[in-house]
Amino acid sequence: MSRSLERWSELKGRQIEPEQPKLFPAYVVWELTLSCDHACLHCGSRAAVSRQQELSPEEALLIVPQLAELGTREVVLIGGEAYLSPVFLPLVSALAEAGITPVMTTGGWDMTPERARTMAQAGMKRVSVSLDGLEKAHQQIRQRRDSFKHALRAMTAIGDAGMDISANTHFNRLNQADLEGLYTLLKMQGVRSWQIQITAALGRAADQPEMLFQPWDLLDFMPRVAALKQRGLTENLLIMPGNNLGYFGPEEALLRSPLPGGQDFFQGCQAGKFVLGIESNGDVKGCPSLPSLPYVGGNLRNHSLRDIWEKAAALAFRRNPSPLWGFCATCPFAEVCKGGCNFTAHALLGRPGNNPYCHFRARNLANKGRRERLLRIAPAQGNPFDHGLFELIEEEFNPSERYHSASP
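RESULT FIELD:
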């Protein structure tokens, strides 16, 4: 058992009730536009062209003091591709002037040295470039020739402009073999931090079920990530898992901790507690990746951010979570994990509370000679952040396959 799990067991055994911190939108992810210079296979928002009635620069700037009033510390600007929005540079400047750290996630297609310098001058602090594999897999997923070369050039431009460079990768069956090669490449590019997550069945990814991980793929993938995390801690490349990766395997403390010897562990979805998502038309959700229809709590053209944060039931679903179901209801870590990533679970099974993408769960079943297989039974409708529906089938698992990926 890892030290994080031992610590959790100790606290649980002593029945210590942790102090409840005040909830506020510390970390905001703001989609500025759905206009994009890529059309990626895994894009949850189906970004390509802008939404109808996206916020104007004037409307967007009115939101900045509202964020500051609520205590927001960092805003991640995303798209589509955020730099394609007329809101982009004025908003970077306004956030910085308000004492809120502006950062960005980009595909990097048109991240020229001039653009990077302008962003840095406006107050941008850190830029994360999406790199979805080595060249072949990246361009297959990004659906644009030379996109790999442009992403690497973007990293160089960002670093030369004096901003911190980070990277992020969605892993799936198209690019999982590139994990170790990407680590080597990112070190060569001067990247200091790398977020790794798995592709969720949202948007265009819902249309590509063959690219999605099966739950048992975690048995091979998670130890490989952990080995690189250990290596990165000694080589100045910090690897951190996204909210939908992992959960309470033997490497939990290593994976979740930013420092060697840490005892961190996943503590449940923070949507609507310390995380907030804003869509480019002003709609507000507890997390930017949640399906829009059931989770939008209001629109900033009609309500103040404070009113939405404090009063909208759609944002409060994690403050008083619904009961868990399926395997998650029986899990020994249910009280702290609370079903893992909600948008990932909802995108698969139509509601949160039971998440088959769990390392502990996959190991538990494998030790009994069992595994779970996801089978799509209903397609998505073709809207931003939509999802289909999957059936979860439990079946025998050949022990010889236990720690290796296999065909669906």
